[in-house]
Amino acid sequence: MENKIITSAKNPIIKNIRQLQEKKAARDEQGLFIVEGIRSVSDLKHKKIKALVASKHINKNDFYKEGTQWIEVSDEVFCSISDTKTPQGIMAIVYQEHYSIEELNYEENSIFLIVENVQDAGNLGTLIRTAYGFGIEAIFLSNGCVDLYNPKTVRATMGVELPIFTNVNVSDCIQKLRQKDIEICVTDLQTDIYLQNCTFNKSIALVVGNEANGVSKETKQLADKKIKIPMKNNLESLNVSIASAVCLYQICMGLNLQ
Amino acid sequence: MENKIITSAKNPIIKNIRQLQEKKAARDEQGLFIVEGIRSVSDLKHKKIKALVASKHINKNDFYKEGTQWIEVSDEVFCSISDTKTPQGIMAIVYQEHYSIEELNYEENSIFLIVENVQDAGNLGTLIRTAYGFGIEAIFLSNGCVDLYNPKTVRATMGVELPIFTNVNVSDCIQKLRQKDIEICVTDLQTDIYLQNCTFNKSIALVVGNEANGVSKETKQLADKKIKIPMKNNLESLNVSIASAVCLYQICMGLNLQ
Lengths: 258, 258
Hints:
Number of strands of chain A: 10
Shape of chain A: elongated
Order of helices and strands of chain A: HHEHEHEHEEHEHEHEEHEH
Low-confidence stretches of chain A: none
Helix content of chain A: 25-40%
Oligomer: homodimer
Strand content of chain A: 15-25%
Mean pLDDT of chain A: 94
Largest interface: A-B, 30 and 29 residues
């Protein structure tokens, strides 16, 4: 049975994979997402794989792992479920990971990132990669953020291994982090306090916000610190991933984490 | 004659506009580029406009300037030359600006940015906006960079008013800047010198490179300083616009330009 090649795009397994590629609701309901491409699938070290989907020119021995399902499909069918322009013939159906703030372990002078209502998948991907590069402990994505498991963000964050909390209620999250003696620092264009003049001397959660509106008023009110990046030429604001990177860099310097 | 509405997508004026949207060669040859959308066209303060192209529902008085040509087209024709999903019915044909390094005026402790072979239009747009926000004096784009005048970059850099040199030979540019006592600082993943440990105390040109390969070997050899951003988790590299932003922030701090 396992070696039978699926040749119809209307096969229910194939239809479901297409749903997982295209619809957040399907991903959420099934707790699954798709990872595509030779390098990305090879890089799935610590993730739990449900099934591998391969077109017939793929060598099973290169990818197969004990305990995962192997689904072979025709090139045509693979193209019909691929999210890329040049499909490489291999994708994995992967279990989403879920974390609880209560179980979060971290050391002194750790940094966390709370992302509120960021809408662009590319921005979210860059944000996550950057945070990983700066050694951030964990990321919290608000329930208004673009889906972490959409194909574009998945591509942009391959190889990133850190706890990412999804569908987070920001107020609750802030409250819980504060109980753990973590300082809440919000980016705010209206504040008079510049990033470079701030002291960072304990664990901190940086909150960044939506591309158009920044961090919400409600969240700003919960902040211990409000900061802004010095800007010239009356530029309205920096891209959210740029602003986050600059803040994270300065916080790392402040905490001597460079 | 001026009030005649163009209704054919095959009209030579229309065909040429499409060339200007799609082809760098056409833009270079004619020294023109297209700016599209109500806000973007309204924001064209210091740029020299050759013609305005409007669909008939646009009010001429809102956009028309003495000395520019007014081209009215049908909605259908406008859609055929628009680069956006939801065309707003107005675009401008704008003259490219060209600068000479010899005429460059700048004050003490100025910052310049040299961009070598960046390929992604989105990255270039973000880079330019960020540099503008940090008060950079001028930007030099190497002859291997994605075209400054492609529609995506044009959209991302609207409102940015600073000299941007295009088709630059990087070695020549570095030589000329050094003659003006400007220090050349290159991002380099292979160096042992971290950004935060560098002293910045004179005018500086930061060189950033291609997304996949970074700054070229040849250009690195011409540098006064090589720097890298501290990174955790063995992340290969940061996105080029992210890396540029962090470096520019630190350089601004070093030069007390915040």
